[in-house]
Specification:
Helices cover 42% and strands 15% of the residues. The chain is an alpha/beta fold and 249 residues long. The protein has a single domain, classed as TIM Barrel (Alpha-Beta Barrel). The chain binds 2-phosphoglycolic acid (PGA).
């Protein structure tokens, strides 16, 4: 079934003390029924936060995982390791990974496979650069990202995936896509999913919007029929803002 989801991407922020405080504040807030709330802290905080969230409905995700299963890959973290400590989600293909760490679609596809193999639920990110939108190539860019990174999955595996559309020009810039721009792309993505898989699978797929989504604009964005929630960066670092977003459906 299609879920309404708000996922916080903490990126490389917070001290351990701040992370604990943030989680405690989120935990004591009222989370609306039927909303899946996910926090994605840095790797090093995953294990202690899993413990803190044991009695809560809040889920824990990582921000990345290795494309390899195990072995001599110094500094990497395997999907299976994350799963073994109680992590349930993993962000894959974030634009910061694609651009700063040169992750091509092929690597992203391998990470998706690792996540699925380890029974983690991938949050697959896609989105165009500003120049690509200005050149009217945004649909083609997102289509290629989906085809190369995700659509190799079988129907059974694809059903475990969440998609996040994050226009790169909106990430961390304070410039949010309009709700119409978001809806237009989300509808396009859902149609692609329907063509590659089935209408039913597309209808059940959660597609999140990310990019300067905050407590003031979430309601308008989430009011669109194909926007099933948000992947939230900056605004997920303040419990009150993050929770206000979860109340914006
Ligand atoms: P932002 O980041 O909300 O700070 O724009 C979103 C993201 O990168 O996932």
């Amino acid at each position: 079934m299609r879920k309404k989801i708000v996922a916080g991407n903490w990126k490389m922020n917070t001290s351990f003390k701040e992370a604990i405080t943030l989680i405690e504040e989120i935990k004591k807030s009222t989370i609306p029924n039927g909303i899946e709330l996910i926090v994605n802290p840095p790797f090093v905080y995953c294990q202690p936060l899993v413990q803190l969230l044991k009695s809560s409905t809040i889920k824990l995700g990582a921000q990345n995982c290795s494309e390899h299963q195990s072995g001599a890959f110094t500094g990497e973290v395997a999907a299976a390791m994350l799963q073994s400590i109680g992590v349930t989600y993993v962000i894959i293909g974030h634009s910061e990974r694609r651009s700063f760490f040169n992750e091509p679609d092929e690597t992203i596809a391998k990470k998706i496979n690792q996540a699925i193999h380890s029974e983690l639920c991938p949050i697959f990110c896609c989105g165009e650069q500003l120049s690509e939108r200005e050149a009217n190539n945004h649909f083609e860019i997102v289509k290629t990202q989906l085809e190369n990174g995700l659509f190799h999955l079988s129907e059974t595996d694809f059903k475990k995936v969440i998609i996040a559309y994050e226009p790169v020009w909106a990430i961390g810039t304070g410039i949010t896509a309009t709700s119409d721009q978001a809806q237009e792309m989300h509808q396009f993505i859902r149609t692609l999913v329907s063509k590659h898989y089935t209408h039913e699978i597309a209808d059940n797929c959660s597609i999140l919007y990310g990019g300067s989504c905050n407590a003031s604009n979430a309601k308008e964005l989430f009011s669109k029929p194909d926007v099933d929630g948000g992947l939230i960066g900056g605004a997920s670092l303040k419990a009150a803002d993050f929770i206000a977003i979860a109340h914006s459906f």
